[in-house]
Amino acid sequence: MAMDRSSSITKKTDGDERDLTAEDVGGDEKSASIERIFEGKEVPPWQRQLTLRAFVVSFILAILFTFIVMKLNLTTGIIPSLNVSAGLLGFFFVKTWTKFLEKSGLLKQPFTRQENTVIQTCVVASSGIAFSGGFGSYLFGMSEIVAKQSTEANDPQNIKDPTLAWMIGFLFVVSFLGLFSVVPLRKIMIIDFKLTYPSGTATAHLINSFHTPQGAKLAKKQVRALGKFFSFSFLWGFFQWFFTAGDDCGFVSFPTFGLQAYANKFYFDFSATYVGVGMICPYIINVSLLVGAILSWGIMWPLILQKKGNWYSAEYSSSSLHGLQGYKVFIAIAMILGDGLYNFLKVLGRTLFGLYNQLRDKNDNLVLPVGSESTTPSAPVQSYDDQRRTQLFLKDQIPTWFAVVGYVTIAIISTAVLPHIFHPLRWYYIVVIYIFAPVLAFCNAYGCGLTDWSLADVVGPRWARFIPLPMAMAIPFYLGGYFAIDMCVGSLILFVWEKLNKAKADAFGPAVASGLICGDGIWTLPSSILALAGVNPPICMKFLSRGANARVDKLLGS
């Protein structure tokens, strides 16, 4: 408990009472220090942090999270942060494992926060490959099926059908690029520049809290909440399956706002996944999606459709890129590219500005004192937590020479292998890529370590929450607004929950959202197995207009 040095507390010892000042209990720093809680616990070397149980749990959770990421990747393309879920589930499974071994007297190594971090890192990295590896974008975009949707550039030279062999080889070669290019910058970014890395810092605080006595109790309750909503989401997906015997059947095609709105992709499709994603994503993301859906499917596409035969030939089908589909695709791409270019320039500009400030401050500190009035700038005093974490961070370092040799080796292998995978690719293209890659990696690493900038920084905090994000707005331009409505429902649930009990919402909101996402995501696996086995749903629940229903009844009655 933090307190002022002039204040005192009363402590009972064997019936006696005596006054203790804050100095007796270690002052503010000791009482507020996280690292002092773990002071008496041994920090295992990195070899002992990479345990068999950590890899087993990581493997199981990675499969689970990969299914979830792939489902989101192939539908909306919006992947929420799964750090909390990975850290929480990793803690739960290994803690259960170690408690069982401890009771049986077989526990040889206690579960540490470092091991918890290994699990969280492995899970997020593995599932991250499903997204950043291009499985929902460029890898499938090179396929013949996608090429047939366009009349241009669909010759064999521009087609590469996805097969397991070349995709594994390609990802193995390119996935180590970022690792080897950023490893030499770790000390510079974290120790020298003291960058905060907000997302990583938040995850670290979360894992630290799990391993304190109070945090362990809360984590147990969070896992229980996650399990409840996981079960609900899984069973809800199973229930919906019975009504999806044909196209446009089931709750996913429920015309919530009417048939005309449904035709323009405005409906609530009862997806637990998107509701959970909406609870995790910031409000501005969900509102931006909804604004984009209204602008595109509510205003722009109906107006452009009226220009059929004028702006584009009426002979083109609805799926032709020369017709309305072309407007949907290329306007969305233009918005994404524009916002991406802005963010790239933002990160680059902030990197250069930050480096300038770092060098300027360092030069200021090198000024020699002249005369008795000059004083040498004193370095800020590090807290015990900072000293301890710096010591542990510098304890096990990957040598710089190893990173450089690894980078050069990967570059040589890539230069030799990639032209055989992608025949139009020339070896000197790859050389140029590997020359510039460290610069981009540095900009990205530096930018991630800083607080994000956006247009809101320019106009001020008062208006920040009212500025939609162009990249988020662009997604429903092509897909429609159904998932945006689901995500806004998730935001509404969280908003009401925070108004009723903010502390409980902050503690259990991510767990509830993760349960909804995981349960619905896991149902994808058994539903796929049922489809492969030829087991079809027994019922088709479809919604028709009054006129269409009358015609169907007449047809069935004849």
TrEMBL record:
- Which ranges are annotated Basic and acidic residues under compositional bias? 11-27
Location in the cell reads: Membrane
Compositional bias ranges of the Polar residues kind? 1-10
Keywords assigned by UniProt? Membrane, Transmembrane, Transmembrane helix, Transport
Example GO molecular function: oligopeptide transmembrane transporter activity
Note whether Cell cycle occurs among the keywords. Answer: no
In terms of domain of life, where is this protein from? Eukaryota
Gene Ontology CC: one annotated term: membrane
- UniProt family annotation: Belongs to the YSL (TC 2.A.67.2) family.
Write down what this protein is called: Probable metal-nicotianamine transporter YSL7
* Species of origin: Striga hermonthica (Purple witchweed)
Q: What is the lineage of its organism?
A: Eukaryota, Viridiplantae, Streptophyta, Embryophyta, Tracheophyta
